[in-house]
Model the fold of this input.
Amino acid sequence: MSMWSDEQFDRVARRLDGEQILLTETERQLADDFKNSERVLGDAPRVPLPAKADQRASRRIASALRGVRILKRMRLAFMSGVSAAAAIVIALGLINLMTTGSILSDYDSLAWLFDGGEQSRDVWRMPEQDPQLELLAGDLDEIETALFSPEPTPLPIEAPAIEDIDGDLDELWRIWVEEHPGETDSSGDVTSG
Amino acid sequence: MDTEQFRAVIESAKAGEASGFEKLQGLYSRRLYGYFFRATASHHDAEDLLSDLMLRLVRTLSRYEHRGRFEPWLFRIAANMVRDRIRRRKARPTPISLSAQSDSGQTLGEQMPGRPVDIDAEIQAGELSESLQTALEGLDVTTREMILLRYFGEMSFKELADIFECPIGTVLARVHRGLKALRKIMRRK
Done:
C-alpha cells in the first residue's frame, strides 16, 4: 500500500514534467524518494546512434517515399481511366436521349460511334467490365490495405513482405507505363485524365 | 523548434516531402534508437526496428491528425513494434550471448578470432547494462515499457500518460514502484 495518494502522485508527476506546482512537504518527500530511486539507472549510458543505423533509416525513408509516389500515380492513372470511360458513357447517353428520347440501355449498339479499332473499344468498355482494370483496382486496394494502417497497431509488420510490395509496385508501374505510351510525361507522371 | 515550426514539419512530411521526413528523422532517431536498443538489448534489432519504423512512418503519417501529440503517437508505434519483436524472438531459439563467460573465464566473443569492430562495440554496450537489462526483464511488461520510454525514449510523464491512456499520477506510481523493484532485483543478483 502506497503512503501517497493518487492526487499526490499526479501533482508530483506534473512538477517533474516542469509545471510550476508548489509541492507540500509530503509531496516533496515523494519527489525526493522518486529521484533517489532513479539512481538505479544512473550507470546506464546514453546509447549513441550509429551512423550505419541512421543511414539505413534514411535509405528506408527514400525507398518508402518512392513507393508511395508510385502508388499515387497508379491510383491517378486508374482514376483517369475511370473518368474517361464514365464521361464517354454519359455523353453517349445524352446523345441517345436527345436523338431518340429514350434512356440508353444497349451500349454495344452504339459501338459504331467509334472507329472500330480495338483500342477505342477498350476505352468504350466500362471499367468494371474490363478484367485488366478490375484486376488493377483489386491490386491497388489490396496494396493500400496492406500498407496503410490508420492507427498504431500491435500487429507485427513483416518487413520483407513490405519490401516485396515495393518491388511489385515498381514492376506494376513499369508495365503500366509500357502499355500506355504517351500517357505519362518525362517524369513518369500521368498526363491524361 | 517551436510548436508552429513543428507543425510545418509534420505538414511537410504528410505531403510526402523528403525534407519533412529528414527533419523528423533528425529529431527522433537517436531517442528511438536508444529506446529500441535498451528494449531489445541488441544493436542489430535496434537498427532493424528504427528502419522499419521510418518505413511505417512514411506510410501512416498521411492519416495522422496533428493535435500536438505526435511523440506519444510515434512512441506508441515504437512500443508496439518492440512487443512484436520480442514476441517473435521468444518463438525462436535463444541465441548464445557473446558476453557470457565460459568455463575458461573468457567470453565467447573473446574466443572468436578476428572479431569485427562492431561486435566489440556490441559486447561493450551489452556488458555495461547487462545487469540492468536482466533486472528489467523481471518487471511486468507495462512497467518495463514505461521505464524504457521514460529514460531511453526521454518521454515526459504526460506523454507516457497519453501513450498508456492512464492518469499521469498512475504513470509516476508505476515507474516509482518499478525502479524500486529494479533495485531489489539488482541487489539480489
About this structure: Residues 85 and 123 of chain A are 6 Å apart (CA to CA). The radius of gyration of chain A is 31 Å.
